[in-house]
Amino acid sequence: MYYIQSRWKLEGRKLCYYGLRSGENMFRNSVPVSKETLIKSNSPRSNPHTHAAEFDTLRFNQRVPKRQARIISAMPKELTEDEKKCIGGLLGVQVVCESERKRIPQSLSEATFCKGCCANDYIIPGLEFDSDGYCPFCQTAEETKNLRSVLPVIEDIPHSEKSRFDAALFYTGGKDSTFLLYYLSKVKGLRVLALTWEIPFMSESARASIENAKKKFDNVEFISHTVNKNDLKRFYTELYSLSENTCACPSLAYLLFYPTLVENRVPYLLAGNEPAQMLGLYYNHIAPKIAYSFADNKFLTFLFNAARILILHPPLKQGQFQTLITMEQLAYGDNPLKKISGYSNELVSNVVRAIKAVPELLPPVRRSIRRSSWSGKIPAFVHLDFDRILGESYDWNKTRDILIKECGWVPPDDDKKALHTSCQLERCKDCSQFMRFYQCRSRLIPFSAIEISLASRSCVRSREEIMYEMENLLGFSLEELPEYSVIREYIDDTGEKS
Question: Which end of the chain is more exposed for a tag (fewer CB within 10 A), N or C?
């Protein structure tokens, strides 16, 4: 009996792989399935005595069309020799006998772990290892060490003479954005605009951290936005139907605050992302390697600015292009070229679709996009590399103590949690991404699975700490988590409750 190998799935004219492959096959996640394969034989014309009519009969009998997709879609099944010839190079890799089928772990205790980090084939089903037992993260550690960010990486932000603020950041009260706020304000002495989107699912520790920060930072102006409950419910309902979670940070915050940034002529905009988050975009096949060097490519920048000048728009500085395409995607939808490229971000695409359920949010930001594009007064979307500014690897254990002392940061109830700390529904996002990927319903590898694997590779946390978080604090569960009731209660709330 023959089967489609585990983690491979027939989708139209392709066999698609749901996992992360090893070596040179890392991103070779689809194999075309031919419409038909002709079984070739030696041409009877090699015999000079063959009559033309007889040749046509032989050709008809010996070149029989076999549809690969039809055979594969009928699996599991026994294969005839004819069908094996039709399957061709798929046999033994994508199509295997029962004894060669890979078993997918159903728990961490059943998982195979990488020898170099905490990556395993439970949190990333379909994860492959090389002959030495190393995962693709460890195999490619050297070649990806310089992939810092898809945004321009800067080390210094100058004081602005044209704005009350030197920089703005999206502040959630979580560990990463709090560290960025601390670095910009207290270490660099900059005037910072801290922007907070008050989501209904913000964790209590994050709320307390924000209130404490307001008392600790004298050169920071805090602004918060909310969306009325009816509009937010429409948005969350649509997003939940698409992603099976309500995670929209920071995408919706970009829309809410962009007019404020333009009006105040803020020169720089930063998002608090630790190194593992940025590198995760590459391994999730969301950003190609060239995206990490695009901002430094003078030729591409010249071409883009030349096109802008032709349509009477001012040229853009480093980081402004990234701001513009980010805002335009959210306000107008995905660019068709993105789909053609093969690189897409399912999370952002679903948020973009969900935003259409609340079209009233779009006119203000669209006006600001047009106005800033014409004037060139666009905040530069840039990235501060935590590793680089610290002069060493971003060590969470050291950073936590600084944040508590200097910023009044309040850790989550379980202070061993080190990935995401600002939302009480973070585990729901983990769980939905994990279950969708595990069940081959999404090509998106759970972000937390990639990030915790990369974090463990950098050796700034112990294996015991990583394992504890992986098993107890993240949402790698094949069963629905209790936190889902919070989402459903919010979405189903008719407004009659107090």
Answer: C
Q: Rounded to an integer, what distance in angstroms lies between the CA atom of residue 191 and that of residue 197?
A: 20
Average pLDDT (275-288) is: 88
Q: What is the dihedral of CA 336, 339, 343, 346, to 10 degrees?
A: 100
- Contact call for residues 205 and 178 (beta carbons, < 8 A): no
Cα separation, 273 vs 290, whole angstroms: 20
**No. of H helices and E strands in the chain?**
20, 12
Q: What local confidence, expressed as pLDDT, does residue 357 receive?
A: 93
C-alpha dihedral (396, 397, 400, 406), degrees to nearest 10: -110
Of residues 295 and 95, more confidence is placed in 95
**CA dist 159 → 51, 245, 476 (Å):** 89, 40, 44
Provide the Cα torsion 116, 450, 257, 266; round to 10°. 30
3-state secondary structure of 169: strand
Can you give the pLDDT at residue 35? 58
What are the two backbone dihedrals, phi and then psi, of residue 57, each rounded to the nearest 5 degrees?
-65, -45
Q: What band does 50 get if pLDDT is binned at 50, 70 and 90?
A: very low
pLDDT digits (tens, 9 = 90+) for 212-256: 999 999 999 999 999 998 999 999 999 999 999 988 888 889 999
Of 213, 7, 23, nearest to 105 by C-alpha is 7
pLDDT surpassing 60 at residue 418: no
pLDDT reported for residue 218: 93
Q: What integer is the mean pLDDT of 346-362?
A: 92
Q: How many residues does the chain have?
A: 498
Q: Do the Cβ atoms of 242 and 353 come closer than 8 Å?
A: yes
Report cis status (omega within 30 of 0) of the bond before 76.
yes
Element (H, E) at 306: helix 298-310
Say if residue 422's pLDDT is above 60.
yes
What is the residue-wise DSSP string for 188-245? S---EEEEEE--TTB-HHHHHHHHHHHHH-TTEEEEEE---HHHHHHHHHHHHHHHSS
Alpha-carbon distances, residue 281 vs 66, 121, 344, 393, 446 (angstroms): 40, 19, 10, 19, 11
pLDDT the model gives residue 55: 41
Cis, peptide link before residue 250, omega less than 30° from 0: yes
* Encoded amino acid at 301, one letter: T
Distance set, CA 25 to CA 30, 262, 288, 357, 445 (Å): 10, 44, 15, 39, 16
User: In whole angstroms, what is the distance from residue 153 CA to residue 12 CA?
Assistant: 41
Pairing of β 95-97 and β 2-4: antiparallel
Q: How far apart are CA 398 and CA 405, in angstroms?
A: 11
The model's confidence at residue 342, banded by pLDDT at 50, 70 and 90, is low
Checking if the pLDDT of 439 tops 90, the result is yes
Q: How far apart are CA 41 and CA 61, in angstroms?
A: 10
